[in-house]
Write a structure and sequence with these properties.
The complex is a heterodimer.
Chain A (H helix, E strand, L loop, with lengths): L3 H28 L5 E8 L6 H20 L9 E8 L7 H10 L3 E5 L4 H13 L3 E4 L15 E3 L4 H15 L4 E6 L3 H16 L3 E6 L15 H12 L3 E5 L2 H13 L5 E4 L6 H7 L1 H4 L3 E4 L11 H11 L7 H22 L2 H8 L3 E3 L4 E3 L12 E6 L2 E7 L2
Parallel strand pairs in A: 1-2, 1-3, 3-4, 4-5, 6-7, 6-8, 8-9, 9-10
Antiparallel strand pairs in A: 10-13, 11-12, 13-14
Helix pairs in contact in A: 1-3, 2-11, 2-12, 3-4, 5-6, 7-8, 8-9, 12-13
Chain B lengths: L6 H29 L6 H19 L6 H36 L4 H23 L17 E5 L2 E4 H23 L1 H11 L1 H6 L4 H27 L7 H14 L4 H16 L10 H15 L14
Antiparallel strand pairs in B: 1-2
Classes of the chains: A alpha/beta, B mainly alpha.
Chain lengths: ~400, ~300
Amino acid sequence: MHTKLLSKFAGAALAAAVSALSLSATVTAASASSEPTYTIAYEGPLSGGNAQLGLNMKFAVQLAINQANAGTTFGHLPFKLAFLAADDQGSATQSPTAAQQVIGNSSVMALVGPAFSGATKAAEPLYAQAKLATVSPSATAPELAQHGWKNFFRVVADDNAQGPADATFAVKQLKAKKIYSIDDGSAYAQGLATAFDAAAKKLGASVTHATALGTTQCQAGTGNVQQYSAVATSIISSHAPVTFYAGYYCDFALLAKSLRSAGYKGILMSDDGSLDPHYVSEAGAKVANGTYISCACADLSKNAAAAPFAKQFRALAHFPVGTYSAESYDATNVIISVMKKLGVKGISRANIVNALHHVTYKGLTKVVKFQANGNIAGTAVYIYHVVNGKIVELGLAP
Amino acid sequence: MCFTENFMQYLVNGLANGFLYALIALGYTLVYGVLQLINFAHSEVFMSGGFAGYFVLQAVVGRQPHGLMSVLMIVLGIVAGACGGGLIAFLLERVAYRPLRRRKAPKLAFLISAIGASYFLFNLAGKEFGRTSLSVPYIFNGTNSGIAFTFLGAQVQTMYLIWAAAAIVLLVSLDRVVAKTKLGQGIRAVAEDAETASLMGVNIDRVISQAFVLGGLLGGAAGFLYALNFGVVYTMGFTPALKAFTAAVLGGIGNLRGAMLGGLVLGVAESLPLSCVNFNWQDVIAFGILIVVLLFRPMGLLGERLGRSA
């Protein structure tokens, strides 16, 4: 029996062990060189049911740091960079503990992440107090930009861009007059689903909305997997031709399986949290085929400039680039570009925050430039489609 | 609208889940019967069954099997799951319970020992087999899903039929084993009065071990049946086992038929009200019913069978 309280302790112990390991790594790097060493941290899910999303990001951050140290991306830097990974399991309850580990390490100058919106909401007050810049490659909940956190930045468009784009696609392209929309109860999914529902109604569709909590099976909440047979029954009896799921791939795969095995014939659609090949492998290609997935991220394989990145990522991570890998790479490089400009004398947590407000950096995915509230300037949303067990990009959402 | 729309569908969904709860619940009840202890590591026995079935099928299934081959594969998976569950349950008793019993440890020590074993097992599984959910190979219907037939407006999935068939066979066999065999006599004797049973020449250690293994066989088989639909992952045991524990208490803990009935009642109680209300109410209503039932029948539906502890 794992009780919630006990799992908290286990999580904290694990995080402590991880940070102890990373700390010792930092120290050896510093003693090997006379130049000062600064650390760039990453916070996201490195264990748990949605760990793959975190691993996609972690290795990209590590790659950017390795390249900067080798002098390939920014030329010779007057300092060395170290890397620290903090595992928050994607959970809002674990996130503050992970944040404390990062903040407590005085060599950490900036952070890539947190990865998930709920975790970001929970940890950001701590980061804001420590004046530590956080550049998230993936947290898309709109409200995150509305708290007045000066240190908050993100390199993806928020759900106020994604939700309406998804709704427009469902109503205009898929011609859905009736939509069943589900969220998993997380901060991210609820924000996205709210934006989606409002936009779909405005376009004339009728929307039924329900919350199916993320499951313990996926470590994405307290829900019970068996709920999906009931969810499927409700959806089928609503006769909605399109089901929109706001949440992450692990639970979306379980829902998709339940829907198909209960005989649902409608179209499935989900968000960037489901943009992962694991969705297809967990649901099975037969179930997953035909699913539409949206993301404020473009498909890297179509981008020639990104080819070397994809190759080096694979060599480091031993798996191909995934969702938000390129965004994480860009987020890390934006931070490094700012540090280079500030120079050894100018580098401090607070100065990096200020400099990020004025940065313009051409990354792999887009030109990174932040609005005053930390949101990225520009709002491109792409639609993907599962065909023959592969997720392919269809292009920009209408 | 209420209770009429999709009534049959919810009943079928509920019964299907209920059969799984019943299989897991028997593990709690068997151990409680002989030891008056709740084996909180039973969730990991269930998980071990899921993984054992997964690995065996992964090794033998090449191309998608059809017809009789599919049935054989399902039986093989259930047997593998049962063996995995039985083995872990056996080891659990040896490592986490028997030494404490020898030293006449207080009840609380058993509880903590079980929680420790549970943590050890699921973290080990997470470390060894990865943190992401793995799908059991497809062994029927293309995707281990699909509808077998429609009955009074309810769509009965092939998966549900497999769950029901396997559960009924296993539950009836267990009932016969406990009622008719020498092994069952021993378990009943120890449950009734452990001291007298030992004076009559019953080897208590062996009976306790057998009760663990029997519960583990069923729990492991349930783990595989569950995995067939939902996949295997190291955290898979948590909620189903919690629900099954509830079912065991609902039916009257220590009472074998009570555990079976409790599982089915809990499954249906979770599901039926959903034809009236949103599925977010599922657990609220199910556990509301549990509290009401226990208020009127504190010993559970069929009553608790209590003896003196071994």
